[in-house]
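sry for the spam today, last one i promise. struct tokens for design, 123 residues
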């Protein structure tokens, strides 16, 4: 039954309204079709899971997204052991934020994570 539900959800996601082809938050740009990520003119290399997590956070930006929402979106019913999500967020932050002056990934302790540009915070 669980597998059937996952398959139905996947079909519904694919048949729903078309997603944007490019997500942009500040100078961070994620191209959904080509699976490429840029910060300014610099191309960033992310593994497939990190790419999906970042895409989900950017789609929800500037909202804070909970651990449960991310895990449901990325892994569905197949929960990962340990603190796998936190490890992925650490790797994303290391690639997306550390080499650059302005951090975009925000941790809201007890609530989740958000991708926000400085201009999002001023609104």
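last one done:
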């Amino acid at each position: 039954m669980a597998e059937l539900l996952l398959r139905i959800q996947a079909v519904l996601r694919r048949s729903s309204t078309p997603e944007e082809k490019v997500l942009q938050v500040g100078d961070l740009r994620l191209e959904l079709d080509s699976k490429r990520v840029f910060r300014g003119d610099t191309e960033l290399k992310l593994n497939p899971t990190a790419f999906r997590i970042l895409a989900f956070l950017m789609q929800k930006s500037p909202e804070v997204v909970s651990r449960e929402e991310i895990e449901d979106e990325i892994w569905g019913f197949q929960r990962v052991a340990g603190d796998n999500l936190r490890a992925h967020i650490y790797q994303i932050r290391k690639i997306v934020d550390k080499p650059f002056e302005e951090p975009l990934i925000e941790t809201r302790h007890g609530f989740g994570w958000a991708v926000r540009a400085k201009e999002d915070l001023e609104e």
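The chain is about 45% helix and 20% strand. ok im logging off now
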